[in-house]
Amino acid sequence: MVRTVFVNGEYLPESEGKISIFDRGFLFADGVYEVSAVINGKLVDYAAHMERLGRSLKELRMAWPCTRDELDVMHAELIKRNALTEGIIYMQVTRGAADRTFNFPKGEVTPTLIAFTQAMSLVSNPNAVTGIKVITTPDLRWARRDIKTVMLLAPALGKQEAYEKGAQEAWMVEDGFVTEGTSSNAYIVKDGKVITRHLSNEILAGCTRRALMRLAKEEGVEIIERKFTVEEALAADEAFLTSASQFVMPIVEIDGKRIGGGQPGPVVRKLRELFLKEATA
Ligand code: PMP
């Protein structure tokens, strides 16, 4: 089946999905994006993703490419046209195509909007059973990591370094403290309490993080929002990450050192179960 993608209002076979070489997303990374998971043909945490999209656009003084209703239709159509039962929808908005000047283009420029699906097995991801390995690497990103921009070179380099070292994710480190993963939020567990960095301009406010905070609260699992060091992580009872496509993912090794005996621990297993219960309901 040929994948159907969305480009500026049109549904097209993927080989026909094209944008201008003058697009500011391409030239300046002047664009924002969202990735939403789909389980059983239904979007997960979609309202939170759209809320964050609105915030990212506002922070960059970028126009909405269309109405929220139209975005809802786009997501629903992509699921339908691609018969997507499980996977993700990636969507991106850029400031549009214009002559190359650093300052915003003068006059009316139409934002670019593209979206596509990627079928993937999310619920029965085998990594969730074994747990994954992470490495630590310096956080090379800019100062507004709260905005979900497509400027992903530092995360791409970090993820590549992780893969080359036999790990699946890199935790980025600044002044000795873990900020977050290259595409996920970072957590450790000590004495039954979950510790994760507080929200600020230094990390992305994960939609999965938000859902997890709510579920943990309902379940009586304490989450402390504060910075933690690499040393603390290495001495933790458990570690895990969250993201829209990995949900709640156990970590069993950091920089080659086993965490919690090298097995996913009870707290992360419980939290993943709670998340999946709600997402598949
Ligand atoms: N931090 C970063 C840097 C990310 O790229 C992501 C994935 N978008 C996350 C955290 C997790 O966010 P979410 O749960 O909304 O996918």
TrEMBL record:
Cofactor(s) it depends on: pyridoxal 5'-phosphate
A GO cellular component entry from the record: cytosol
Matches recorded under CDD domains: D-AAT_like
Alphabetized Gene3D superfamilies for the sequence: 3.30.470.10, D-amino Acid Aminotransferase, subunit A, domain 2
GO MF annotations in UniProt: L-isoleucine-2-oxoglutarate transaminase activity; L-leucine-2-oxoglutarate transaminase activity; L-valine-2-oxoglutarate transaminase activity
EC number: 2.6.1.42
Keywords attached to this entry: Amino-acid biosynthesis, Aminotransferase, Branched-chain amino acid biosynthesis, Pyridoxal phosphate, Transferase
Pfam families on file: Aminotran_4
Presence of the UniProt keyword Transferase in the record: yes
Reaction catalysis annotation: L-isoleucine + 2-oxoglutarate = (S)-3-methyl-2-oxopentanoate + L-glutamate; L-valine + 2-oxoglutarate = 3-methyl-2-oxobutanoate + L-glutamate; L-leucine + 2-oxoglutarate = 4-methyl-2-oxopentanoate + L-glutamate
Any single GO BP term: branched-chain amino acid biosynthetic process
Pathway recorded for this protein: Amino-acid biosynthesis; L-leucine biosynthesis; L-leucine from 3-methyl-2-oxobutanoate: step 4/4; Amino-acid biosynthesis; L-valine biosynthesis; L-valine from pyruvate: step 4/4; Amino-acid biosynthesis; L-isoleucine biosynthesis; L-isoleucine from 2-oxobutanoate: step 4/4
Entries under InterPro entries matching the protein: Aminotrans_IV, Aminotransferase-like, BCAT-like_C, BCAT-like_N, Class-IV_PLP-Dep_Aminotrnsfr
Enzyme class at the top of the EC tree: transferase
Cited function: Acts on leucine, isoleucine and valine.
Record-stated family: Belongs to the class-IV pyridoxal-phosphate-dependent aminotransferase family.
Protein name listed in UniProt: Probable branched-chain-amino-acid aminotransferase
Protein source organism: Aestuariivirga litoralis
